[in-house]
Structure formats: structure tokens, C-alpha cells
């Protein structure tokens, strides 16, 4: 049942290339320049009238939504905001008929996300669900569904569902951009071609996990660590931190790299591990200066970046892990993989039950 893997989590990490391919299947026309969504109720007229997007979810799905917001803002230039469902449902959210609400849920059964969906609908928003379970409550009650085709996810720690949610956001973001005319066909074709390359790029990372495994063993001796990054790197940092906490029980915090000096820098002391994501090239120098801030306080820094930056970054960090090159808007689909593996191997090194971490359930159907 685990397909030769020791744990469902590792199996599901390895299923990501297939999940990416399956989620894209039939959603790009044969020219490779346009995204197609067959049965959306959301009309082109409605899309043109959208004034704001609210992305609502819990946990890892919320983290996928953080990337989704960045994708939509970059490609479509519509204001988008994120909220966790348990907050959204009780804050009397400001919704108009021109608000598109996107709920994200692997299971489609999370109680708070379902309640948030109902709240948004009752206020007149069009609600689109990104979900992995087509027959779920959330899929049934949403106005539209964009299915992720990750297949059943058994491990409590979500991996392939998260990354397939990213693919869904890329596709849907492209579709909105196409309809609203905020992207040229050439630019869309470039993104689609880069998406087509993602599965093999993930495979190449999965074929070579020794360095991450070694680093996981190193951090498993620590009780606290930090993840830092800017932009989408910050979004992925938050997911990496959650993954590590939930299965290795090592405490970590994800910080927007530029925010550290507003308080948290006080916690950086000799030997504390800091994992810096540095893939967003427009802010690379800014991230490097934040890396230097923590280095100067004795942090032990591991950076995740592109190969071409490794030599230069190694002047300021202790270790570097290179990920394959892609477009800035798509990086999360690659940079999350080493963080999933890091959490997995850290949990393994500490002898925890990787697939069934303490206190947690796969599907949270109570408030
Ligand atoms: C973490 C994890 C949870 C879920 C969250 C939402 O690895 O799995 O944080 O992401 O409980 O669940 P869904 O996506 O089913 O609504």
C-alpha cells in the first residue's frame, strides 16, 4: 500500500510529479498558449467585473493560498487577500457581488473552511473551491470547483495536495489573466512551458536527497530554528515551518526576512539554525543582507537558492542547497520539496511516527 516507501508521506512526496501532470491535464489547449476551464459557472463577464479576491483556508491549504495570492496579484493585478477560515467566518468579512472567494481544502470537509464558504455565499460572493475531493461537502456547496488531481492523501502532513493546489492557482491565475487581458499569449506560453518542466525538475530533486537528509539529522539536535524569506519565499517558509513542527515537534518560526530586526532578531544566538529561502531574484540582495544580519549573531545558515547563486551565497552562509531554475512566479512548486524532505527526515531521525503525528487528525471536521 505504501508502494515500497517506508511511509505514506515519503510516497506522497514522490507522487508530486504525477500530481502536477494530472492537475494540468486537459487544462491547456493544444497550442500550449491558453488555459481552458471547461465547466466554470463563473462567466467571462463576471471575471471582468471582479474587484477583489479573498482566499480562505486552514493550515497547509492556507499556505498554498498565500502563494495563490501572489500569483493572482502578479498575473491579474486584482487585489487579493488571505485569511484563515476560523477568523474569516467570524469577522463579518466585507464581501460584494464583485468579490471572488476562493476556498482551498484538500479534504473538502474542514469545518471552518466550509463555514467560511457558507458565510461568503450568504453575503453574495461567488465561491470557487480548490479541492482534492470532488464529492466533498465543500465541492458540493461551492459555485465552482477546480479539482486538484493529487489522488488520495493518507499522511497527516500534507505534501502533494499543497503542491497540486499551487498548480491549480497557476492555472486559474493564468485563466483570469487571459480573460481580463492582463497577460499576452507569449507570456502565458512561457509560463505554461515552465509548468510543463516542473514534474521532471521535482524528479531530479527527489533523485538526490542525501544533502537534505544530512542537514535534517543536523537540525534534529536543535529545539528551535527559523525560516526566513521574502515574497513567495516567505510563503513557502511558512509551509516549511508548519511541516517541520507537525511531524518533528521541533519548534520553528517563519519570518519575512525584512521583519526580523523588529524584534525576533533578539532570539538569534550562537549556533541556531536559520533556513533562508533565496529564490526571488528581484529581492535577492535584500535577503542576502538579512542573512548577514543573522550570521553576524552567530546563526548557522542554510540557504535554498538556484545553482547560479550558490558560489556567491556561500560567502555569507554555511551551507547551500540548489533547486532547479524556474520562473519566479512558479518557484514555490520546487522550493517546497526540500522543506518537505527536511521535515520528513528530521521526524525520522527523532524516531517519531511520521504519518500520524501526535494530537493531529487528517481531516478537521469539528470547529
Ligand atoms: C498540515 C495539514 C493541515 C491541513 C488543514 C486543512 O500538513 O495537513 O494543516 O492542511 O487541516 O485541511 P484541508 O486542506 O483538508 O481543508
Fraction of residues in H or I helices: 40-55%
- Percentage beta strand: 15-25%
Structural class label = alpha/beta
Strand neighbour order, sheet with most strands: 2-1-3-4-5
Characterize the overall form.
globular
State the distance separating the first and last CA atoms. 31 Å
Uncertain stretches of 5 or more adjacent residues: none
Q: Compounds present?
A: fructose -6-phosphate
> What series of H and E elements makes up the topology?
HHHEHEHEHEHEHHHEHEEHEHEH
Number of helices: 14
- Give the assembly state of these chains: single chain
The major sheet is characterized as:
5 strands, parallel
Rounded to an integer in angstroms, the radius of gyration calculated over CA atoms is 20 Å
Total count of strands = 10
Mean pLDDT, rounded to whole units? 96
Task: Summarize the topology.
Layout: H1 8-14, H2 16-24, H3 44-49, E1 52-57, H4 59-76, E2 80-84, H5 85-88, E3 99-105, H6 111-122, E4 126-131, H7 137-141, E5 144-147, H8 160-180, H9 185-206, H10 210-219, E6 224-229, H11 232-248, E7 251-256, E8 273-277, H12 284-296, E9 300-306, H13 307-313, E10 319-323, H14 332-349
Parallel strand pairs: 1-2, 1-3, 3-4, 4-5, 6-7, 6-8, 8-9, 9-10
Helix pairs in contact: 2-8, 2-9, 4-8, 4-11, 9-14, 10-14, 11-14
The structure holds fructose -6-phosphate.
Features:
367 residues, alpha/beta, 5-stranded parallel beta sheet, binds fructose -6-phosphate
Amino acid at each position: 500500500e505504501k508502494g515500497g516507501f517506508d511511509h505514506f508521506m515519503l510516497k506522497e512526496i514522490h507522487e508530486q510529479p504525477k500530481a502536477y501532470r494530472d492537475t494540468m491535464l486537459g487544462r491547456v489547449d493544444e497550442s500550449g498558449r491558453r488555459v481552458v476551464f471547461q465547466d466554470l459557472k463563473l462567466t467571462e463577464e463576471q471575471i471582468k467585473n471582479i474587484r477583489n479576491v479573498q482566499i480562505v483556508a486552514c493550515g497547509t491549504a492556507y499556505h498554498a493560498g498565500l502563494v495563490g495570492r501572489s500569483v493572482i496579484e502578479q498575473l491579474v493585478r486584482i487585489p487579493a487577500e488571505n485569511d484563515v477560515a476560523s477568523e474569516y467566518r467570524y469577522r463579518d468579512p466585507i464581501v460584494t457581488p464583485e468579490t471572488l472567494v476562493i476556498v482551498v481544502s484538500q479534504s473538502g470537509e474542514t469545518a471552518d473552511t466550509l463555514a467560511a464558504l457558507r458565510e461568503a455565499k450568504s453575503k453574495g460572493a461567488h465561491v470557487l473551491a480548490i479541492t482534492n475531493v470532488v464529492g466533498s461537502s465543500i465541492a458540493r456547496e461551492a459555485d465552482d470547483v477546480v479539482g486538484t488531481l493529487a489522488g488520495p492523501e493518507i499522511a497527516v502532513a500534507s505534501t502533494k495536495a499543497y503542491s497540486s493546489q499551487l498548480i491549480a492557482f497557476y492555472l486559474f491565475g493564468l485563466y483570469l489573466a487571459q480573460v481580463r487581458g492582463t497577460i499576452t499569449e507569449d507570456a502565458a506560453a512561457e509560463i505554461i512551458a515552465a509548468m510543463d518542466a516542473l514534474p521532471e525538475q521535482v524528479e531530479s530533486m527527489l533523485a538526490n536527497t542525501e544533502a537534505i537528509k544530512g542537514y535534517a539529522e543536523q537540525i534534529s539536535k536543535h529545539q528551535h530554528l527559523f525560516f526566513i524569506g521574502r515574497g513567495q519565499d516567505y510563503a513557502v517558509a511558512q509551509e516549511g515551518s508548519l511541516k517541520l513542527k507537525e511531524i518533528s515537534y521541533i519548534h520553528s518560526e517563519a519570518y519575512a526576512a525584512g521583519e526580523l530586526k523588529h524584534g525576533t532578531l533578539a532570539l538569534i544566538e550562537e549556533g541556531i539554525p536559520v533556513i533562508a529561502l533565496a529564490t526571488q531574484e528581484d529581492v535577492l540582495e535584500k535577503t542576502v543582507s538579512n542573512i548577514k544580519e543573522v550570521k553576524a549573531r552567530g546563526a548557522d545558515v542554510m540557504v535554498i537558492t538556484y545553482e547560479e547563486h550558490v558560489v556567491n551565497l556561500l560567502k555569507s552562509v554555511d551551507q547551500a542547497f540548489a533547486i532547479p531554475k524556474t520562473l519566479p512566479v512558479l518557484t514555490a512548486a520546487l522550493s517546497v520539496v526540500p522543506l518537505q524532505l527536511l521535515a520528513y527526515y528530521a521526524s525520522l531521525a527523532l524516531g517519531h511516527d511520521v504519518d500520524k503525528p501526535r494530537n493531529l487528525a487528517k481531516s478537521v471536521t469539528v470547529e
